[in-house]
Amino acid sequence: MTNYQPVAQTERIQTIDILRGVALLGILLMNIQEFGLTEASLHQLVRGPHGGNYWLQTIIHALFEHKMRALFSMLFGAGIILFLAKNRTGAGMATPELFIRRQMWLIAFGLVNALVLLWFGDILFHYGIVGILLFPFNRLPARTLLVCAVVVGLIYSGKNYWNFAEQKQKYEKYQTVVALEKKNKKVKLTDEQKDDKSAWEGIVKGAKYDQKADKADIIAMRSDYATVWNHMVPKIQSMEAPFFYQIILWDVVSMMLLGMALFKWGFFSNRLTTRDYALLALGGLLIGQTIAWLSLPSYELKITNISKYISTSVVPLAEVLMPFERGFTAIGWASLVLLLYRSGIGAWLWKALRAVGQMAFTNYLMQSVLCTLFFFGYGFGYFGDLKFYQLYFIVAEIWLIQLVFSVAWLHYFRFGPLEWLWRSLTYGERQPMRLTPPAPLETPILS
Fold first, then answer.
1. Are 135 and 100 in contact (CB under 8 A)?
2. For residues 97 and 115, what is the distance between their CA atoms, to the nearest angstrom?
3. Is residue 41 part of a domain?
4. How far apart (Å, rounded) are the C-alpha atoms in residues 303 and 138?
5. What is the pLDDT of residues 99-152, one digit of tens each?
6. For residue 236, what are the domain limits?
7. C-alpha pair distances (Å), 299 with each of 164, 202, 274, 315
8. Mean residue pLDDT across the chain
9. Do 63 and 284 form a contact (C-beta atoms < 8 A)?
10. Are 260 and 78 in contact (CB under 8 A)?
11. What is the chain's Cα-based Rg?
């Protein structure tokens, strides 16, 4: 029998929707920085006087940087199991085929988000590819999935260490050449030695603040759509291709595998005891934040003085510990949210967060639309114009818009507009959209 009806409201796991809503809104805390300011401007906050903007950036970095995206990835991993666990047919396809089709459409939406909406930090393209890769893992037991997540996380750490080791090697070759020049000022360098020297000098130059280049970047982003597109495409191509396969792939795979394991243990579906969630919240945040704050000096030194960072560091602490910092902190935040949900306080907030999470696809792309139109030149052109703290007024406004919009929309419709489009494309048939109003009660005129 054909079965392509949307999941009924009573069948949805409310806590997954709530956590997805929290993660989605939390992601904007970091993304807004890239939407509104240049990377050079953000690094200047670390290099310059440590005022209020520096501390705001530092606190957000420690508490939320990569952690909300990690939680979002975990929930996507849980969603893989949820989709494949239900018998579905549509467009002449069985569940596995529909899943692959679903992921292929997600890849297409990701390309639209990156190449049309011009958000270089898109994750839909990555999720689409990784979801297909993880398809065979969905039947593994939770412990095996956890082991796989740890192994992939270690590979991620290893990749970061490898990059660090390559830079250290370049620095050592540079030092050898400089020592040779000091010893004999008239020495004629070979082509290889010249390359060794210029390679490290290029790295140092790229790490320094270039005011002229920064201004040119801002001018380009405040220009018309064609200019912004030409300026952004190289960065988008790097994120969607080489950087993805070198770094992001391992990051996303590890978190999705962890999410699949946690789902099988009942973590996301609110099945653990209150004591378990309390211990996970305390332990996760304590371990994750300890790693975050211990790694902070290494992270900042890389920005302020890359030569000292490479020469004095044995291990790139921030990069190597990143998978574990993210994993523990994300679990801690999720556990804390579930504890608060169990308390029964603020039912209106949980309803709104659940609506945002149920419409996560629509809301994620809405953030791209709202932010690019506000900051980029073909919209209001505020790129590079706001102070760091002012970015979070925009975050608050977008949060409010999405909370209200999501609740209002789901009052009349089964799911968000892009969720409807995605499902319709996946199943090859237009899905029911409007909620069926309840039939009026018939009251007899005469008793």
1. yes
2. 27
3. yes
4. 40
5. 999 999 999 999 999 999 999 999 999 999 999 999 999 999 999 999 999 999
6. 9-160+232-427
7. 13, 20, 36, 12
8. 92
9. no
10. yes
11. 24
Distances (CA, A) of 226 to 56, 217, 218, 234: 34, 14, 15, 14
Tens digits of per-residue pLDDT, 234-289?
999 999 888 898 889 999 999 999 999 999 999 999 999 999 999 999 999 999 99
Contact call for residues 417 and 362 (beta carbons, < 8 A):
yes
Residue type, 376: F
pLDDT > 50? residue 445: no
The single-letter DSSP state of residue 184 is -
Structure tokens at 242: 């080489």
> What's the domain count of the chain?
1
Whether 188 is in a domain gets the answer: no
Amino acid at position 411, single letter:
H
Lookup: tokens for 354: 């659940």
Q: Can you give the pLDDT at residue 89?
A: 73
**What is the SS3 assignment for 63?**
helix
In the structure, what pLDDT confidence band is assigned to residue 439 with cuts at 50, 70 and 90? Answer: very low
Q: How far is CA 317 from CA 35, 241, 299, 310, in A?
A: 27, 26, 8, 12
Q: CA 35, CA 216: separation in Å to the nearest integer? A: 16
Three-state DSSP at 93 gives strand
Q: How far, in Å, are 120, 291, 447 from residue 444 at the CA level?
A: 62, 69, 6
**Cβ(111)–Cβ(233) below 8 Å:** no
State residue 30 phi and psi, 5-degree precision.
-95, -40
Q: CA 327, 254, 240, 103 torsion: positive or negative?
A: negative
Distances (CA, A) of 188 to 175, 181, 185, 200, 201: 16, 9, 9, 19, 18
**Can you tell me the mean pLDDT for 217-226?**
96
Rounded-to-integer distance, Cα 71 and Cα 122, Å: 16
Model pLDDT for residues 46-63, shown as the tens digit of each residue: 998 899 999 999 999 999
Q: DSSP per residue over 103-114, as a string?
A: HHHHHHHHHHHH
The answer to whether position 167 is within a domain reads no
User: Is residue 239 assigned to a domain?
Assistant: yes
